[in-house]
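Example record

The entry below shows one chain as it appears in the dataset: sequence first, then structure tokens.
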Amino acid sequence: MVFWAVVALMAPSQGTAQPVDEAQSRQARALFEQGVSFADQQRWAEALDAFQRSMGLVARPSTRFNVAQALSRLGRYRLAVATFEAYLSPSEPDRDAGRVAQARALLAEARTRVATVALTDVPHGAEVLVDGAAEAGEGATRTLVLDPGARRFEVRTSDGRSERFELTLAPGSQSNHAVAVTASREGDQAATVAPPVVTNPRAQAAFERGRAALIGRRYDEAAREFHEAARVEATPGTLRWLGVTLRSIGRYTEAIGAFERYLAAPEVGVTPTHLAQVRAAIEESRRSLAQLRVVVQPTSAALVIDGQERDRGGAVIAIDPGPHVVELRAEGYQPSRREVELRPGGQLAVEVRLEEVPARIGVEPSVANAQVMLDGRAVGRGRVELTTQPGEHLVEIQAEGHEAFRRTVRVTVGGVVRVDATLVRRRLPAWVVPVSVAGGILLVGGAVTAVVLATRGTEEPLRPSWGTYAEAIRW
């Protein structure tokens, strides 16, 4: 059973105290509790996001512990190992001995799940990228500790040569790969062209920030700055640099868009060879896209991928490889949510049948213990709340001494129908009242006679004289 730290935000931080704004602390706690809620629902990606945002506001050992757990659940064991190690470091100790012991056990387990790849014959000064991100290290042999799964490798030299390959790594596996760098393909030369001519000062500043980030191998930051530069002033050169950067980090869909905008209005005097290189980059990016096929009932359901609604007009959706959250929503149906992992150039089919939101019927009879029946089946006594299928249903209510209640109701998908039933007392037949009264009087008379006889002692009993029926009534 997974233990989530759920109370740590109620106490001061156990490390070096830093002044924390009260509003910031409240926000951190709200995000922390939201993360715990997501974790309880096994929505690990959302739990991780909430915990990381809470950690960014107020750094606490318990929050770091939960971040590490969420990373493990998502299969991101390499980062989970580093996060557990940071949690267990003496610089910010956690006084919860049980949590510390569990962290050590989870750390040991995560270490058994990471895969190890040894690259040999790496050219001097070459850069090694995994899934578009640069890996630290140098020398002819590079040992990489990576998450299991399909990984994309690229070894690039400073003179434009490169090798690209893919490896599927099993959890805990160890493998070797000898690098064989060849001449760079034409499409890879797109990044070596001169910087664009930018006239807008804001666009120029954003482009320079992007280029500095690209040189520093901060690719996501570079993409953001190039996006900003293209938004302010969409010069052909800026679009080309943006496309090259996006392609290098596996954002192929956006890269294709940037390259196509470039081809629609390239620089003046561009050579046919350079245009061919950009077209080749587009084709290679398209081959790297994954194919996602979604089949859903009802067919009117909306498709949402990573929080954005997507058009389901085509049978297959081309999408960037990597992790994605696929949601399907339709009015009157329970939503479906799945986390999927797509390989470069791979295909995945998602088939979902959404479940209708059940109809609800509430019955409240005026008699507290009345028997409630739905479609001939007893469902409870007194006030009853139940779910059922949409359509027509017969509600019956029975209570002793009351007329039976019957009503046919119709409830729609996800709808709610309330039945407030006032039960009517059953009326007695006309002959019952006088007979009951007479019987009662006779009963009372007999009881009185018994009392009188019981108190007469030993006197000689009177001879009975019943008289007439009318006289007996007067007695």
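Notes for this example: The CA atoms of residues 23 and 387 lie 42 Å apart. The chain has six domains: 8-113, 115-178, 186-288, 292-353, 359-421, 438-474.
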